[in-house]
Amino acid sequence: xxxxxxxxxxxxxxxxxxxxxxxxxxxxxxxxxxxxxxxxxxxxxxxxxxxxxxxxxxxxxxxxxxxxxxxxxxxxxxxxxxxxxxxxxxxxxxxxxxxxxxxxxxxxxxxxxxxxxxxxxxxxxxxxxxxxxxxxxxxxxxxxxxxxxxxxxxxxxxxxxxxxxxxxxxxxxxxxxxxxxxxxxxxxxxxxxxxxxxxxxxxxxxxxxxxxxxxxxxxxxxxxxxxxxxxxxxxxxxxxxxxxxxxxxxxxxxxx
Length: 256
Hints:
It is a single chain. The protein has 256 residues and is an all-alpha fold. It is built from eleven helices and no strands. The chain starts with a helix and ends with a helix.
């Protein structure tokens, strides 16, 4: 292996580890030297959905094999994935929905910084968890259930990447600002898009419909964020991922 190839491979590994550290609670080691910039790790954001989807599927399949009711298995799978992400995306959804109750842009951003959960955010979480658990439970006995959960994990984070690239940062700081490149870099889309297309070959028409649902859901969240906030924040990205993934699960549970 040439020195240049070895260096590039080392950089890709470090960027993948940084993406795992930012978007999950999975062990990714530590950096003995300054980590790469977050913008360099954007390409790996969708790929973090692979271990998370695998965790969800393992718990779902295990619960089903033990004879648990499908809804119970779905709830356990949802809990496992939420623990693996530290509830990061759930927190983003609650903050974003709470913020929409503000009277103007400044007030909405202020509300989103508040760590307390309001009634709007709590209701959004209840709906997301309920729909997610029911959909996952329905996928327990579905064919290609492993590929389905992997597709939802990757596709929803690819949709999040599109929103990150499509909207300007609404704040001068935070995750949305740090992960936004100085100029659009569409090459960062290729890894996530390639994996999603490969998984669509396994899940068939159901997978294509799920990807369409995830992208459409992300577009709706992005449109609301642009109108209410003027751009994206880390909370908007988290809300995008969770809403898109839930939409993907819903479609897959109906179509598989």
